[in-house]
Each structure stands twice: as structure tokens, then as C-alpha cells.
Amino acid sequence: MAERIPPERLQPSLLDRLRDDQRGTTKEPLEARVLSKRQLRDDVKDNLHWLMNATRLSVSTDLSGWPEVETSILNFGLPAFSGETASSLNVQDLESAIRDAIICFEPRILPTSLEVTADENENMLDCHNVVGVRISAQVWAQPVPFELLLRAEVDLETGLVTPLELPH
After folding, report:
1. What is the dihedral of CA 43, 3, 32, 52, to 10 degrees?
2. Are 52 and 163 within 8 A, CB to CB?
3. Window from 2-16, 38-52, 102-116 with minimum mean pLDDT
4. In order of start, what are the domains of the chain with their CATH numbers?
5. 111-123 tens-digit pLDDT
6. Pairing of strands 146-155, 115-118
7. Region (Disordered) spans which residues (predicted)?
């Protein structure tokens, strides 16, 4: 009979479940097959970090003839923002790109709860082409979703995005 998973424990992502970290072991303990909310939070943060630091295929390849590819994992990532300047950047485009990518590639975030807001003030120009973005969302969990608050620093010179968790 299969072991029952307590309701406050969650399963890892499919990719993590398919990965075999203990090749010599034929049976994994329960702790290796479930996540706590803290582990889930860290996993979602890691996945968002990878997502926001990947450049989508559509930046270099015209995908208009393949609409399915535009929303597939082959187009994982964000548009290229490196080379932009903070003064010329359209922050609504940045917010929209981040929001659309999260909705498309991080299904554990509840889409209706997702808010992405870029800093739009004169201090933005003093940050050496770094734009701050606040991300607020609910992450699906049992028995109830939990809140995730991040501040991402988007370096427009290098394209590097650094998400940091904010206190609640």
C-alpha cells in the first residue's frame, strides 16, 4: 500500500521528481518525495531566477509561423533587456514580459494573484541602469496558498536579474 502524504506536505515539480539524486537506492524515503512550504517557496524562487535570467528563443528567431512554440518551453525566458537604458526603457513592457513569462512557465503561481510592478521614479536613473521590480503572488499549496513577495533587480547592462525575497 502506498504511503499517505500528510496534507501540509507538497510534491516537488515534475522535473525534480524525474531526476534521480540517489541512483543506488531503489526506494526513496518520504522526505525525498515531499516538500515543506519553505522548500516549495525556495523551489519557486529558484525557478523564477532561472526564468528571468534566460533569454527567450523569439529574441533571435521569428516564431510567428509556429504559435505553439511561442508558448512552449523552447521559448522559456524573457526578452533581451540588456543594452537598454533605464531612461529609455518602457517599464510597462518590462512588467508585462515578466508577468507573461511567470504565468506561462511557473504554474504553481496563481495567475489571478500575480502583480508585477517596476520602479518608476527619478531614483531609478541613479541606480546605474538597474531597475527594481516588485513581484507579489500567491503560490498554490495545500491546505491554502501562501504569499510570495520578491524584489527583482534587473541590470540593463548585463541582462542579469537578481530576485530577492521580501519580508511579509
Report:
1. -20
2. yes
3. 2-16
4. 31-165 (3.10.450.40)
5. 999 999 998 765 5
6. unpaired
7. 1-26
